[in-house]
Fold this sequence. Notes:
It is built from 15 helices and ten strands.
Amino acid sequence: MSDIINARVTFRNSPIHILEKFTFKDIDSAYESFRNHSGLKELVILQTCNRVEIFGSTNNLDVSKIKKTWASLAGLEEVAFDNNFEIVDDTAVCEHLLRLTTGLDSMVVGEEQILGQIRDAVGIAKEMKMSGEYLNTLFDKAVKIGTRVRNSTGINKGTISVGSMAVKLAEENIDDLKSKKILLIGTGEAATLVAKSLQKRGYSFYVTSRTMERSQAFAETVGGKPINFEEIIRAFSNYDVLFVATVAPYFLVTFDRIKEAMERKSGMMILDLSNPRTVDEKVATIRGIKMMNLDQIAEMVDKNMRYRSNQKNNAEKIISEEIQVLEAQMRRLEVEPVVKEIFKDIDTRRTKELEKALRMLGETDASKVKIIDDLTKAVVEGIISTPMNNLRKASEQADADLLKAASKLFDYKNKD
Ligand SMILES: NC(=O)c1ccc[n+]([C@@H]2O[C@H](COP(=O)([O-])OP(=O)(O)OC[C@H]3O[C@@H](n4cnc5c(N)ncnc54)[C@H](OP(=O)(O)O)[C@@H]3O)[C@@H](O)[C@H]2O)c1
């Protein structure tokens, strides 16, 4: 029998600067290592700016192997997992995944991005040939339920994105923001959220990315004036507000560059939406700098969303009902190989006996052969269908004893 597990480090237990230490730098090699060393049969890795999670199926859960594999991929000591790592199995996995797909576990409750991130994660797991029948079914059902809960509760309506909160914070902290020079560094998904909000509120801004083509394409679709990357990196003093949202693996906005820029101006606000951060936190100590990172921006989002508690309660209620349905569907997967094998075995015997009888009768007339064939099929199905359906029901109701007894009676050997 397979257990489904979920191991995770998320923003709920770990601030962003700790969380970033647990990320997998290279997803392909993470899949390879888990495949070879963790004892997991199936695996889906979900990594976003707020969480690093693995979902797995296994016949033989060994938590220490999972931690060891993860620790060696992230370059951490196992002790680092003590206060940050959570691992759950079975019902708790279904519940957690439904909280993810409905957006209840997101920093911004109800936000839509997580659904796309989950679909992408499953797509990669399929490409890596690491997700199979269990996880594909689990994620497929959970995404469908999540979408339904979002639509029926309206939890996804009127959410404040991290991007629009960042713009709101700039408005609150800077007098006459319209007269200031705003720069957006990054042209990805998070930068798009910022750009859309700036556009909506009527702010003009510059946008930059490592390649000018990318900045130009971004400007054409979501707005902003494209500007050369090298130029801005050397001249931050030209700007009053920086929104930074990149996946650069080092500090793009360094202490020295901002220190130098601040010799020529009195104030600047920097909002770093990146995780890992792309603005050196020491920058916050420079006189005249107001700085906010993703943790602080997300906290403000959370405060703003408190009024949504009604929708949250409704979504929680639906989830608690749906967990049972999802669990029953997952349990049914346990019994299907047994049922399939029994049907196959019985049909082989039926065909063998049928051929023997036809030989003895010397019967070759196709219409008569068909009548006898149909007769044997009807007899077999009449006898076997009810116990097999009862076996399926027993499995949905977690009746492991009956499943064991049936496997023994029909001489079924688990192939795993
Ligand atoms: N997506 C979200 O909803 C969301 C929400 C909150 C926070 N965040 C955080 O925001 C950051 C960006 O996420 P994303 O989803 O927008 O990622 P993304 O769509 O993959 O975009 C990544 C951006 O980073 C730039 N970049 C990559 N490597 C770089 C480097 N070495 N130097 C400079 N720029 C580099 C890319 O520009 P090029 O064209 O030059 O490659 C691109 O503009 C991440 O740290 C993420 O954790 C994302």
